[in-house]
Specification:
The structure holds 2 protein chains of 2 kinds. Chain A contains 11 helices and 13 strands. Chain A is α/β, with parallel strands linked by helices. By secondary structure, chain B is an all-alpha fold. Chain B has one domain. Chain B contains 13 helices and no strands. Chain B is globular, with a radius of gyration of 20 Å. Chain B starts with a helix and ends with a helix. The chains are: A alpha/beta, B mainly alpha. At the A-B interface, α2 and α3 of A face α1 and α6 of B. Chain A: This is Multidrug ABC transporter ATP-binding protein. Chain A: Pfam families: ABC_tran. Chain A: Keywords: ATP-binding, Nucleotide-binding, Transport.
Chain lengths: 315, 255
């Protein structure tokens, strides 16, 4: 990454320890975390539960101070109020003032963000439309579902048209339609040159929308990179579905393949390379059976992620 | 800055007036003041003083209850429900948040006091008792006392749960009305420890008995304007100090 332009997010040797429980045991939430996120990037911060994702985000927002190390957001300390005028933030499982209506809450958010009075109404209406909450705009948020609250949370995070949007588990509580809409919102932000940093453990979302990912396990950033670098195009395995096999040939096929599962008259096989595919095809031809599906399987983020977790556990 | 502080204050006000607790307390206060009519026959010719005394006492008591019960959970609830994450992620400085919360609750108390005072004067009129404006001096001093008590509640609310905060604030309120006795205890006690603790509490806790001038106004005793001005100044300085301590605690807090 270029050093001429300061990244939107920069952390250097960031550590956070806190004391927890009755015996005030020291817990190392983050260890020497170094990360740069550049302008206009959509960055996915991936890790299992308890990996330190939320702690890291709280430091980026200025809600928590690091024990040691440095953190700069838009070139300044995250506690700087000026910086916050350019940031939008959605916490995990957000909870709002239940006695307010979405419209009132967004008005309050706009006011606190310093949006000029004459622009507030237009902005609030635009956001309610964006997150499809126009119909519930004037009902108290008491009794709203988690998905509805999440939508309001997204709207308030965008109230100041921020340069940097930080979302903690934004897909949580959303139904498939809501997730698709949020992905579209994030893609829209990227197209407008905004920087989006979000944490998640839903890997399919990351694969669909992120430019880069960082994988955090037990407070350590184990890898960062472009998805295309992490996930090679190389075929990992091929899944073949064969129909109409007789007992003898089925047994032969089960012996030559890595994995096989029977279901009715279908046999699902997994093979490692083209050579094995050829061998299976030859046997199928000889048995006068049919190949109903042949799917090459590339390495997924999930495979990569699981491998890193296994590595971390071995250490 | 003013926009943000007033935004938080208005939100605090809105939260309180949409809460049933406040409505229940206000209804109760009016009922208690009205009940003076019931005990009128027992007052043996002193009904005017009894009704005035009970009315002023009820207004103070219910305002103190509101300050303690609403104030005690004001900041803690924001931390517990994590609404504070959203507030502090906006360009709101932590001191602005505390001041906004404080002013919001003071506005709640002001409006509550206004409603209760209106109820009180209506009861006086209905009872045929001259509704003298002189009584308002007592309520003005109660307002200064509430300014201190609300700051105490906010201070506790920034680091202890609501129930503990309410208990501590009540304790400060009660001991605050006994500070003269504390000094007496310090002077009379042979034990150095008791002397030390009493002296310490006398100087640290607010002297709230100065704000109680109900007896004087009910009995039409001439008030000392200098003493009142001094009490008001004391309330302002004490409140400002408590708010500064709350801000100092709140600024260092990790969420």
């Amino acid at each position: 990454m270029s050093t001429l332009v300061e990244p939107v997010i920069r952390t250097v040797k960031l550590c956070k320890t806190y004391r927890s429980g009755f015996r005030m045991k020291r817990v190392q939430a983050l260890s020497d975390l170094e990360l740069d996120v550049g302008k206009g990037e959509t960055f996915g911060f991936v890790g299992p539960n308890g990996a330190g994702k939320t702690t890291f985000i709280k430091i980026l927002i200025g809600l928590t101070s690091p024990t040691s190390g440095e953190v700069r957001v838009l070139g300044k300390s995250p506690r700087d109020a000026q910086v916050k005028t350019k940031i939008g933030f959605l916490p995990e499982s957000p909870y709002f003032y239940e006695y307010l209506t979405p419209s009132e809450f967004l008005h309050l958010s706009a006011r606190l963000s310093g949006i000029p009075g004459q622009d507030v109404e237009v902005r609030v209406r635009y956001l309610l439309k964006l997150v499809r909450m126009e119909d519930a705009a004037h009902a108290q948020m008491r009794g709203f579902s988690r998905g509805m609250l999440q939508r309001i949370g997204i709207a308030q995070a965008l109230v100041n048209d921020p340069e940097l949007v930080i979302l903690d588990e934004p897909m949580g509580g959303l139904d498939p339609v809501g997730r698709k809409e949020l992905r579209d919102i994030i893609i829209g932000l990227r197209e407008r040159g905004k920087t989006v940093f979000f944490s998640t453990h839903i890997l399919s979302d990351v694969e669909m929308i992120c430019d880069r990912v960082g994988i955090v396990i037990r407070g350590r950033l184990v890898n960062t990179g472009r998805l295309s670098e992490i996930l090679t195009e190389e075929v990992e395995s091929v899944e073949i579905t064969v129909k109409g096999l007789t007992g003898k040939f089925r047994k032969v096929l089960e012996k030559v393949t890595q994995q096989s599962i029977r279901s009715g008259d279908s046999l699902f096989l997994t093979v490692r390379n083209e050579e094995e595919v050829e061998r299976v095809m030859a046997i199928v031809r000889e048995a006068r059976a049919k190949i109903s599906a042949l799917v090459p399987r590339r390495k997924t983020l999930e495979d990569y992620f699981m491998a890193r977790i296994r590595e971390a556990e071995r250490k | 800055m003013f926009g943000r502080i007033s935004g938080i204050a208005r939100n605090t006000f809105r939260e309180a007036i949409r809460d049933k607790v406040l409505l229940i307390l206000l209804v109760f206060a009016i009922v208690v003041m009205g009940s003076a009519k019931v005990i009128q026959p027992l007052a043996l010719g002193e009904e005017s003083k009894v009704i005035k005394d009970l009315g002023l006492g009820a207004i103070t008591f219910f305002c103190v209850l509101i300050a303690v019960l609403v104030g005690g959970r004001l900041v803690y609830k924001e931390m517990e429900k994590r609404t504070i994450y959203i507030m502090l992620a906006k360009p709101v400085r932590r001191w602005e948040f505390i001041l906004g919360k404080y002013l919001g609750l003071m506005a709640v108390l002001f409006v509550s006091m206004l409603i209760m005072t209106a109820g009180f004067y209506i009861i006086l009129l209905v009872s045929g008792i001259p509704a003298s404006a002189y009584l308002l001096w007592s309520l003005l001093m109660t307002a200064f006392e509430l300014a201190i008590l609300t700051a105490v509640a906010i201070l506790f609310s920034s680091f202890v749960p609501p129930i503990a905060s309410a208990v501590f604030t009540f304790a400060v309120y009660f001991i605050g009305h006994l500070t003269r006795d504390l000094r007496l205890l310090a002077a009379m006690s042979p034990s150095a420890v008791v002397k030390g603790i009493s002296e310490f509490l006398y100087y640290v806790l607010p002297n709230l008995s100065n704000f109680n001038i109900k007896g004087e106004v009910v009995h039409d005793v001439l008030l000392n304007p200098q003493a009142l001005a001094l009490s008001a100044l004391y309330a302002l300085v004490y409140t400002a100090t408590l708010l500064l301590i709350s801000v100092a605690i709140f600024r260092r807090k990790d969420f």
